[in-house]
Amino acid sequence: MESKVSIIVPIYNVEKYLARCIESILNQTYKNIEIILVDDGSPDNCGEIVDEYQRFDSRIVAIHKKNGGLSDARNVGMVSATGEYIFLLTVMIGLTEGLSNISLT
Fold first, then answer.
1. 1-29: per-residue pLDDT in tens?
2. Closest by Cα among 3, 10, 5, 2 to 71
3. pLDDT tens for residues 76-85?
4. Three-state helix/strand/coil letters over the chain
């Protein structure tokens, strides 16, 4: 069985880029992933977007927390991670196709 990869995405005030980022993860050819979306108290609609994607795909874990900053959001995501590998991702970057496959080889 393929190793599970936990992809942790801290989210704060990135509504404009969030869907593109999540779609870039969902479109990966490597499918044994969990996507941990940590809404760090974002004042925009990020929380609602995260919840909608969680309803759409069972690999997505939505976490909502009070704003504590980037490192805190990543740490909260890491506590929830169940994968053998952890991939920290920034919303503004997203994943190019096949990036997670390359990272595992």
1. 789 999 999 999 999 999 999 999 998 88
2. 10
3. 999 999 999 9
4. CCCCEEEEEEECCCHHHHHHHHHHHHCCCCCCEEEEEEECCCCCCHHHHHHHHHHHCCCEEEEECCCCCHHHHHHHHHHHCCCCEEEECCCCCCCCCCHHHHHHC
Structural contact between residues 13 and 44, judged by C-beta atoms closer than 8 angstroms: yes
Q: Which two tokens stand for residue 50?
A: 């995260």
Contacts of 64 (CB under 8 A, 6+ apart): 39, 41, 47, 50
* Total residues belonging to the chain: 105
Q: Give just the sign of the alpha carbon dihedral 69, 14, 89, 1.
A: positive
